[in-house]
Amino acid sequence: MPIEIPTDLTPELVPLSWLIGEWEGSGRLGSGDEDSEHFLQHVSFTHNGLPYLQYRAESWLTDDDGTRLRPLTVETGFWALERKQLDADGGPGLIPADIVPALKSADEVEALRNKDGGFDISVSISHPGGISELYYGQIKGPQIQLTTDMVMRGSHSKDYSAATRIFGLVDGNLLWRWDVATGGTSQPGKGLEAHASAFLKKVS
Question: Domain 11-202 classified CATH 2.40.128.20?
Answer without folding.
Answer: yes
